[in-house]
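Posting this for the archive.
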Amino acid sequence: MPRIEVLSPVPAAEPVAPVALAPRQTIPAQAHLTLICNGKPKAREILSFMAQELGETMSLGEVEIFSKPTAAFPITDQQARELAQRSDLVIAALGDCGACSACSLHDAIQMERLGVPATVVITDVFQRTVASFSRTLGVEGYHSVVLPHPVSSRSEERLRRLARESAQTAHDQLAGSALMLAAAA
């Protein structure tokens, strides 16, 4: 049988230095929660419902929705710095395709690098993509809130239920529950 050899003109990427997660400490009273919305269908809704649910278990002050112009690119370094200055916690969403999952993950990790606890909301079919890309970004095994795919066709009632069911996971990832911290050690 003939053998095919594939040559890539792209050089192998240099290993990325590991990125430390932002410290998980006591969440301040009236915490500023920033929701980074990538504009995907139902992203704003699921983020808003998650914020409502989180407000039941933590003291939230302002909840800001930062709308990205496109899901195809991560936030800029300047945008990340500006968001970090005013945010105590960040949730990026919605990763329901390959590129938007990678970009939302990138957004969350940018916030972590700047000292702000963050998480990313993705759908279950993109868990492997996010796991692979998190390794590329220097945060192997980065946590995520995983929802069933697809989110875009879900009713408002179903989105509210998904938010209710995933709120504790988001809380633990943002606050650093003892269970999550033990798993990371």
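Strands lie at 31-37, 60-67, 89-95, 118-123, 145-147. Residues 31-184 form a domain with the Rossmann fold fold (CATH 3.40.50.10350).
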